[in-house]
Amino acid sequence: MYICRIISLYLNIAIMSANVISSSNQQPLLLLAPFRGITHKAYRNAFAAFFNGVDEMYAPFISGFGADHVPASKLEDIVPFSENQAPTVPQFISNAPGEIIALGHALKEQGFT
């Protein structure tokens, strides 16, 4: 029941976004927002497999790994890039420039642009 409500919420948000975009003479978009603990890679791929037309999916935020290197565990939800069934937008948040730069390089190495 809880999952159904969340899916319904996401679809309502996407439909509202599509209506705003379509009223400005642009092509409507279907975007899937992140929800930590629920919209992981398997969920996003299953959603894309059963509901056609998803334009982009946003992964939950990546944060707090230190500036030296990016642990594989922080990227496992979004890589490898080829396994994502719909375009996936990684998100990260940090107040440390070194973390942002390191994650940007790691994502670029995995195929994200």
What's the end-to-end separation, in Å?
Answer: 37 Å
Number of DSSP helices?
4
Spell out the helices and strands N to C.
HEHEHEH
Apparent shape:
elongated
* Strand order within the widest beta sheet: 1-2-3
Helix content: 40-55%
Low-confidence stretches: 1-9
Number of strands: 3
Beta content: 5-15%
Q: Whole-number average pLDDT?
A: 75
The biggest sheet, with number of strands, parallel, antiparallel or mixed sense and barrel status, is: 3 strands, parallel
Keywords:
alpha/beta; 42% helix; 113 residues; 3-stranded parallel β-sheet; disordered N terminus; 4 helices
Describe the structure.
The structure is a single chain. The protein has 113 residues and is α/β, with parallel strands linked by helices. It has helices at residues 2-22, 41-50, 72-75, 97-109; strands spanning 31-32, 56-62, 88-92. It has a three-stranded parallel β-sheet. The radius of gyration is 15 Å and the shape is elongated.
List the helices and strands and how they pair.
Layout (H helix, E strand, L loop, with lengths): L1 H21 L8 E2 L8 H10 L5 E7 L9 H4 L12 E5 L4 H13 L4
Parallel strand pairs: 1-2, 2-3
Can you describe this structure in just a few lines?
The protein is an alpha/beta fold.
